[in-house]
Amino acid sequence: MSSDTPMSDSLRWELLRNHNSFLLKRGGVTFSRDPLNVTKSHSFKSSGLANSKVVAVQQQGDKIALRRKQRAQQRRPRKNATRHLLKRHRANRTCKAAAAIKTESGRSFYRRDLTQDAVARYHALHKASRRPKEVAPKRPRRRKE
Q1: How far is CA 18 from CA 21, 48, 126, in A?
Q2: How far is the C-alpha of 34 from the C-alpha of 129, rounded, in Å?
Q3: What pLDDT is stored for residue 77 in this prediction?
Q4: Do 16 and 7 touch, CB atoms closer than 8 A?
Q5: Which helix (H) or strand (E) is 25 found in, with range?
Q6: Residue 130, SS3?
């Protein structure tokens, strides 16, 4: 196959569907550990490997980032995903990060079908990151003498 002709997304999915390192089968259900897969389900719609346009929400340290694939860097796996840090959660009673995800994926006609999944994943990651790291042990009450 010549390197000048790009491979279609459906052909790439047929080649990678049954054999990739991110495949995870548990209890009759198939999942994906692909970092660019927003729903973590093993399907063509949400596959980060097979699709040329991908929206993903990931935890990076203590911040949450939105990632998208670039078409210009398609043959360079290390450079093909752009990262936008979602810094502000709430401002003026609106979720600024969810609005940014909707703008990047839905309103710019990039991947409208993954917009709601990306917003749900953001809220789940934000809720998990706000949990306390350790629960303080309760002190026993003292007896009155």
Answers
A1: 10, 15, 32
A2: 21
A3: 74
A4: no
A5: strand 23-26
A6: coil
Residue-by-residue DSSP string for 56-114: EEEEETTEEEEEEE-STTTT-TTTSEEEEEE---EETTEEHHHHHHIIIIIITTS-GGG
Angle at 66 between CA 41 and CA 60, to 5 degrees: 90
Residues of the chain predicted below pLDDT 50? 1-2
Element (H, E) at 51: none
Please work out, in degrees rounded to the nearest 5, the angle formed at the alpha carbon of residue 94 by the alpha carbons of 115 and 62: 70
Q: How high is the pLDDT of residue 32?
A: 93
Query: Which residue has 């609106």 as its token pair?
Result: 94
Per the CB < 8 A criterion, the answer to whether 74 and 6 are in contact is yes
* pLDDT at site 5: 61
pLDDT for res 58:
92
44, two tokens:
């063509």
Comparing CA positions, the residue from 82, 115, 114, 113 lying closest to residue 100 is 115
- Residue 1 pLDDT: 47
